[in-house]
Write a structure and sequence with these properties.
By secondary structure, this protein is an alpha/beta fold. It has one domain (2-97): STAS domain (Transcription Regulator spoIIAA, 2-Layer Sandwich), CATH 3.30.750. It contains 4 helices and 5 strands. It has helices at 25-35, 54-70, 80-89, 91-94; strands spanning 2-8, 11-20, 41-52, 72-76, 96-97. Strands 1-2-3-4-5 form a 5-stranded mixed beta sheet. The two termini are 22 Å apart. The mean pLDDT is 96.
Length: 98
């Protein structure tokens, strides 16, 4: 998994590529924990995300809870495979997906 961050003022865009699973979820979790203080707009670009597991969903849920208090979180460019996981788990109702 590769994580690319681009911050402008209080807006942060994170691009995630590869697989977000049990092995890689802690890496994204650490990036988010240290990177979203003071952020009011968080965008996650999943154009190159191939797969997401329950561990990845847990990280997204934790980030959403934080961002609900301090701003907004949007997930963009979700492929069919990842979108299917979001829909089956009900995350498509919790997350803002564009």
């Amino acid at each position: 998994m590769t994580i690319t961050k681009n911050q402008q003022d209080t807006a942060l865009e994170i691009t995630v590529s590869g697989r977000l699973d049990t092995t890689t979820a802690p890496q994204l979790e650490a990036e988010l924990k240290h990177g979203i203080n003071g952020i009011t707009s968080l965008t996650l670009d999943f154009a190159e995300l191939e797969y997401i597991s329950s561990a990845g969903l847990r990280v997204l849920l934790a980030a959403q809870k934080v961002m609900n208090k301090q701003g907004e979180m949007v997930i963009r460019n979700v492929n069919e495979t990842v979108m299917e996981v979001f829909e089956i788990t009900g995350f498509s109702d919790i997350l803002t997906i564009e």
